[in-house]
Amino acid sequence: MTDSGYGPIQPRTGLPASRGLQWWSNAIAWLFGGTQQAGTWVLMTLVYLLLSLLLHFIPLIGSVASIPLNFVFSGGLLLAASRSARAEAPAFADLFAGFGPRAGQLIAGGALVLVGYLAVFAALLVVGIGAAISAFAGSVLTNMTLPNPAAWSIGLGTVGVVFLCLLALIPISLAAWLAPALIMLRGVPPVDALRMSLAAGWRNPGAVTVYGLVGIFFAFIATLLLMMGWLVVVPLIFLSSYAAYQDVFAADLEVLA
User: Fold this and answer.
1) Read out DSSP for 47-68?
2) Rg (CA), the chain
3) What is the mean pLDDT of residues 92-105?
4) How far is CA 63 from the centre of its chain?
């Protein structure tokens, strides 16, 4: 069932930091709620990762298209997460559910996120080129008489600008976090979904910080396990994101069938 008129959905504010841990706890309970469910999730994840890997083999186009397409796949995997939350077995076909009626909105949302990332990387490139030119000029002017003039010429100002550019990735990532769920499961337009997702993270810094730190820990463990651990961590990422979406937006369980 679809909630096509999403209405005045607003994120809850000031959730305790412990909720970030609870989202992961819910995800673990949903993933291992049944053998069939865990097996389907692992299969969906394997195909999802393989398709993502193949996409990056396409020169230039693959890298550019990966973010909008990831939004589409995320829509399907979040639909599967909603089934797991209701103790229903997800279907493998859920992986491709985002290519249905919501595909255009999901692609649009991903494209907006891509523009944000490209703007940050463009700023970093400009700063990097400027620093390199400054370093070269400094080396010429000093005739190489000072030790490491290139490093000196970069200066704290450039480092500060680079730090601010990297800091800008945080709101972009927060905007992208719950937007696929809002688009896929509630029919929220892309711009509104990105805005609401950013507001959800901004208004609940404690819960989001704990959630992120636990996610980094899981990512570290998954990488140590020769990447095989990602077959478990990726489902947990989507399941925990659904748990956060459901909690922050007090969402009902009416979803796109």
Assistant:
1) HHHHHHHHHTTSTTHHHHHHHH
2) 21
3) 96
4) 15
Contact call for residues 248 and 16 (beta carbons, < 8 A):
no
What is the per-residue pLDDT for 157? 56
The number of beta carbons lying within 10 Å of the beta carbon of residue 91 is 13
Region for 232 from its dihedrals, namely left if φ exceeds 0, alpha if ψ lies in -120 to 50, beta otherwise: alpha
Q: What is the mean pLDDT of residues 10-22?
A: 93
Residue-level length of the chain: 257
**Helix, strand, coil in percent for the chain, rounding step 5:** 75, 0, 25
Which residue's entry shows tokens 């939004």? Answer: 71
> What is the reported pTM?
0.84
- Using CA atoms, how far residue 112 sits from 57, 118, 135, in Å, is 23, 10, 35
Cβ neighbours of 211 (radius 10 Å): 24
Using CA of residue 57, residue 62, residue 67, residue 71, what is the dihedral sign?
negative
d(CA 36, CA 42): 10
Q: Strand ranges (DSSP E) for 102-236?
A: none
Sign of CA dihedral 73, 42, 247, 88: positive
Neighbours of 116 (CB within 10 A): 19
Task: Give kind and range of the element (H or E) at residue 100.
Answer: none
**How far apart are alpha carbons 229 and 227 in whole angstroms?**
5
- The residue among 254, 245, 234, 255 whose CA lies nearest residue 19 is 245
Residue type, 221: I
Convert the pLDDT of each residue in 104-146 to its tens digit: 999 999 999 999 988 888 877 776 655 545 544 444 444 444 4
Closest to 208 measured CA to CA, from 246, 177, 165: 177
The domain spans of the chain are: 18-248
